[in-house]
Design goal:
Blueprint (H helix, E strand, L loop, with lengths): L7 H5 L16 H35 L2
Keywords: Membrane, Transmembrane, Transmembrane helix
C-alpha cells in the first residue's frame, strides 16, 4: 500500500474560487476577530512592556550614583 502524499506545490496552491460567490462577514465577525486579536497581542504587548520596564529598572539601579 502506497499512500501518495501531496507535494508542497499542491499544498500551497490556492483553491479555486467560484465565479459568482461573494464572501460576506456575518454580523458579529468583526467583534470576534478583534477579540481574538486582542487575546493574542494583548499579553505579548504587556510582556514586552514588562521586559522593557525591568531593563530600565536594572540599568538605573546599576548606574545610579
Amino acid at each position: 500500500m502506497v499512500n501518495k502524499r501531496p507535494t508542497m506545490q499542491e499544498m500551497l496552491s490556492k483553491k479555486e474560487k467560484q465565479a459568482n460567490k461573494v464572501d460576506l462577514l456575518e454580523k458579529d465577525d468583526f467583534k470576534a476577530l478583534n477579540k481574538a486579536a486582542f487575546s493574542v497581542f494583548g499579553p505579548v504587548l504587556i510582556g514586552a512592556i514588562v521586559v522593557l520596564a525591568l531593563v530600565i529598572l536594572i540599568f538605573t539601579r546599576m548606574f545610579s550614583s
